[in-house]
């Protein structure tokens, strides 16, 4: 353990105590309230993966997709409780790379920071492009025009203040939550009262009578894990907000502890209801399950409603991407692992250069997707999944190492210990390993594993160059 780790351990409680102050030692302003943090946490677990990707997953796994979401949701809860333990030890913005730097080493922090930044840039590229495509449902305008407008608006929101970002994210999440709860209530009404065109055939027996619960066997279910895990990406975003939360000691644990019921309602509950009303055999890849359900019910307005919801989900994800990329770049720069100009903040405490740089790359990505549509979109999503899961891996490893040091009395104990750790963290790591293996087996997602070594090599070379140029920088000190 380095002297920097000892310093951070001794100052862990001091870092947490600044929650009552108006600003942090990093220069950020603590303006995100409990209401906003709660909805950011809820919205992070509800993305386009549920509204769009679930259609392909249902066709592959049938009703057993419900089990896949339930098990994956449990793993996500283990990851979030591991993150919560670290956050209560030391709540900081850019937490993933900070913890990786402290508990694994400077190179791990470097890789984690840049990889998580890349994850959100790639995700922003896919989401802003998707949002532009959704606009064509109502308006006959060029796709690039919508993409440009959305990017500029979200960029402006993120530069004005973190409070405005939180407020926008609150309402984005509210739309998604309302849509899912509404769908659940409509399906429940059909099952109990029998109204709409689906009333005569709706039955919970569809969950096991149309080829069984595992119509394509266990392998079919396992092959959907990449889609399932992609749906949960961004749930860890609440960790990035730690440095700008008004009361992280109170708000963050509450947000994390709501993960089980969020997944139970929004994923498991919604799928149980939809697959009871509409047999899984009627779903097709590429058709959002909510749209298919509305069509089966004979509700003509369904397509327009779902299009509005998925548009909101895409804009929410892009908004989160701009927020997190600026903070991650600034964290790297503050530690000497990125260009110094990324440290600049606006008067309202938002990272100006980092957010601008990331937004510019998202615009380049829009052009790329416009020029080469089709398979390129699938490949980009796959790479986003593998890069996003890297943050989860580092969270789990850091929690295991932190718990070991805390139990020995080297570091202060967290006020929010992860239950069952380190065994739950080891189980989660094993589950992620299974997902990676499944991605390698699936020809549609295998390309992401081919790209990963090139990204790792680029980071390795960059790290060696930076360390050679800054030999006195403690950010490159060996453990």
Describe the fold and architecture:
Helix 5 packs antiparallel against helix 14 and helix 7 crosses helix 21. The protein is mainly α and 479 residues long. It is globular. The N terminus is likely disordered. It has 21 helices and no strands.
How is the secondary structure organized here?
Elements: H1 3-10, H2 12-17, H3 34-44, H4 48-61, H5 65-89, H6 95-103, H7 106-135, H8 143-160, H9 162-193, H10 206-209, H11 217-222, H12 225-232, H13 237-240, H14 248-257, H15 259-277, H16 289-297, H17 302-334, H18 352-371, H19 375-407, H20 423-441, H21 446-469
Stretches with pLDDT under 50, minimum 5 residues: 1-21
Largest sheet: none
**Strand content range:** under 5%
Helix-strand makeup class = mainly alpha
Q: Cα-atom Rg, whole angstroms?
A: 22 Å
Order of helices and strands: HHHHHHHHHHHHHHHHHHHHH
Compose a concise summary of this entry:
The protein is mostly helical and 479 residues long.
Key words describing this protein structure:
mainly alpha; globular; disordered N terminus
């Amino acid at each position: 353990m380095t002297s920097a780790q000892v310093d951070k351990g001794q100052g862990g409680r001091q870092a947490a105590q600044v929650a009552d102050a108006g600003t942090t030692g990093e220069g950020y302003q603590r303006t995100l309230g409990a209401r906003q943090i709660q909805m950011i946490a809820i919205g992070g677990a509800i993305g386009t993966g549920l509204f769009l990707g679930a259609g392909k997953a249902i066709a592959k796994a049938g009703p057993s997709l419900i089990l896949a979401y339930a098990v994956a949701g449990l793993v996500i809860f283990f990851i979030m409780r591991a993150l919560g333990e670290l956050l209560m030890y030391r709540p900081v913005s850019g937490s993933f790379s900070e913890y990786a730097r402290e508990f694994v080493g400077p190179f791990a922090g470097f890789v984690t920071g840049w990889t998580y930044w890349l994850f959100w840039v790639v995700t922003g590229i896919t989401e802003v492009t998707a949002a532009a495509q959704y606009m064509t449902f109502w308006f006959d305008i060029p796709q690039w025009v919508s993409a440009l407008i959305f990017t500029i608006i979200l960029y402006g929101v993120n530069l004005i203040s973190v409070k405005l970002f939180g407020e926008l994210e609150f309402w984005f999440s509210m739309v998604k939550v309302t849509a899912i709860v509404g769908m659940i209530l409509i399906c429940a009404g059909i099952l109990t009262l029998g109204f709409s065109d689906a009333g005569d055939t709706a039955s919970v027996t569809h969950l096991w009578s149309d080829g069984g619960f595992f119509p394509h066997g266990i392998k079919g279910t396992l092959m959907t894990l990449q889609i399932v895990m992609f749906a949960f990406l961004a749930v860890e975003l609440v960790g990035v907000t730690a440095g700008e939360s008004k009361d992280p000691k109170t708000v963050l644990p509450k947000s994390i502890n709501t993960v089980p019921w969020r997944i139970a309602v929004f994923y498991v509950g919604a799928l149980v209801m939809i697959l009871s009303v509409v047999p899984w055999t009627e779903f097709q890849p590429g058709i959002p399950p909510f749209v298919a359900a509305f069509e089966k019910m004979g509700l003509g307005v369904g397509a327009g409603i779902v299009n509005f919801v998925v548009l909101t989900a895409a804009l929410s994800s892009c908004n989160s991407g701009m927020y997190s990329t600026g903070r991650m770049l600034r964290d790297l720069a503050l530690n000497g692992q990125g260009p110094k100009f990324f440290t600049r903040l606006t008067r309202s405490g938002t990272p100006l250069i980092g957010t601008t740089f990331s937004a510019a790359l998202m615009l380049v990505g829009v052009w790329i997707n416009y020029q080469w549509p089709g398979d390129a979109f699938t490949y980009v999503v796959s790479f986003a999944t593998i890069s996003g899961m890297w943050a989860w891996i580092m969270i789990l490893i850091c929690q295991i190492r932190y718990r070991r040091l805390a139990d020995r009395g080297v570091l202060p104990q967290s006020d929010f210990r992860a239950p069952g750790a380190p065994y739950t963290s080891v189980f989660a790591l094993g589950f992620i390993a299974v997902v990676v293996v499944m991605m390698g087996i699936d020809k549609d997602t295998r390309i992401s594993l081919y790209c990963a070594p090139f990204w790792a090599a680029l980071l390795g070379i960059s790290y060696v160059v930076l360390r050679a140029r800054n030999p006195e920088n403690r950010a490159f000190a060996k453990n």
